[in-house]
Amino acid sequence: MESSFFAEFSKTDKMNWRRQLEKELNGRSYEDVLHQVADSVVMQPYYVAEDLESNTHYLEIQKAQKQTPGWLTIPPIAFRTPSGTNQRILRHLERGADAVWLECGDTPTAHLELVKTLHTIRLTDTPVFLDTPEPAPHILKELTQGSSYYLKGGIVHDPLADWMRTGQDYGPALDSIAEGMALTKAMREFHSYKVESHLFHEAGGDVVQELAYTLASFVTYMDELTGRGVSPLMAAGRLVFSISIGTHYLTEIAKLRALRYLYRKVTRSYGLPDELCQPFIQAQSSRLYQSAHSPHNNIVRHTSEAMSAVMGGCDALSTLPYSAEFVGSESDEFSERVARNISLVLKNESYLDKVTDPAAGSYHLEMLTSKLVEAAWDLFLVIEREGGLPRAFKESIIQNSLEHSWNAKIAEYQNGKIMVGVNKYRENEEKPIFEGRVESAAVFPNWEYTLLTKRSLEEIAPMKH
Q1: Domains, the chain
Q2: Residue limits of the Methylmalonyl-CoA mutase alpha/beta chain catalytic domain (predicted)?
Q3: Cβ distance 165 to 199 under 8 Å?
């Protein structure tokens, strides 16, 4: 006679779990163990199967996830000189990298000397992503040398983010993106622009703001590019989402899963078929949480962030060197190798590249993903009602919202939230912590960068573009 392994245990329900929890709290309130993910998202300490069954769209969220496992190991490389950059690219590719993300800054096309910079690299086999504001037609002319090569990778830049940082008109850049799309129409694996979350993440935005404002940026591009004659399918299919991944492990997993579903809601609104619309997500370890006090702790942080990224279903993983973000410090071969090997260990030893959507079915993660979807969509609709992202930005709606979240984030660390090696478990206790706004760089060592970002946001707000 067959018997269930659990036959000797009586069935229980969620209320019984809660009563037991309240008993073990010894007088503390149940509300004390609720987790505030964002202003509009609160998570219970546990969920059960019935919670998932009552969720009306978790199956749709699952269907929106990436259908094939694995990701590209794609180290970010800052352009310095053509020959030196070429050597670094080749070193990465020889030692496990699958592709390259070349950060060109404002270097003019002529100074990039792409023939020399990309010497011996087969662009038809190796994806090379050029993050540059230079006009796409100029870059493509140099990449192809007049031949009809099938290129992989892309020319990826976010003119909207640049506009929010500097006030520079994004119209001409959008014209260039549209021209580049026309020239690469047959190259299905070539990407033409990026939509980044870094600006919102590094200015203190919570996870809901990151998702909503990133989605609003994407919709702005869809409107602008289709207005320039680009088909909705090409506009939706040729972008790269470049997403910062922070240290809140489960939340960051759910963030990427939510982004895929939100993307699908937008593409469906354009009448595009689901099977032809799969976003390409490049996940990058956070610059905001880099510690200057204990830089080797960044290796552990970046490992946690990388695991969130691959569990959340990223298509490409860019792990920053642990010393890359500090004034006067440049990443060296050792720190670059450690960063690259984080991805390689997750692939070759953890086998996380063998599973599609490993978070599927987890009661907590499914509920968290669903709550993020709902909250981010609601905030996105608020931005739409204000006239879209550019209008909301000009009216300082986005800046004020980010300022509120930034202040709340600082308060958390001032009131007991721990950042290992920074406000607790420090190796050097000589410098004071939490003594005013500027000194709060001890909480976020990259504060100078963030202040510059926020200052530029505040300065641009009253400008008329």
Answers
A1: 62-368 (3.20.20.240), 389-460 (no CATH)
A2: 148-433
A3: yes
